[in-house]
Amino acid sequence: MMASAPLLTRIISSRFFRFLTASGISVIVNVTSRIAIAPYVGYLTSIIVSYIIGILTAWTLNRIFVFKRSKGYAAAELSRFILVNIVGLAQVSAISVLLARHIFPSLAIQFHNETTAHIIGLFTLSFTSYILHKNFTFR
After folding, report:
1. Cβ contact 126:20 at 8 Å
2. For labelling, which of 8, 56, 85, 124 has a CA lying 20 to 30 Å from the CA of 25?
């Protein structure tokens, strides 16, 4: 059991683990804000608005806790972060709507379809976002 402690310590202190933690927090902010906004603006619009809120949360957490500050300005980092996340927004929107409106109903799944689809859509970004942010956003 002692041999696994250093491995666990390395995993927890790794940049990827910190990225997943920051991403998890931003997902909670994203989903919670979508649930709060949806009754007023509809499902797809609420995904877009909550995604923007989630992007700002994720950028702040990643800048502070995950990636060392780049040699550039914060505005340049945020611009690159937004570029990466525009692609992510298209992916999350497409997956969320496809699951909630088509796949889940065709499978007779009726358990919080919109929220479940939104969470699945957000989690599909984990690995690609990490690689792009590590090599492009916070370089």
Report:
1. yes
2. 8
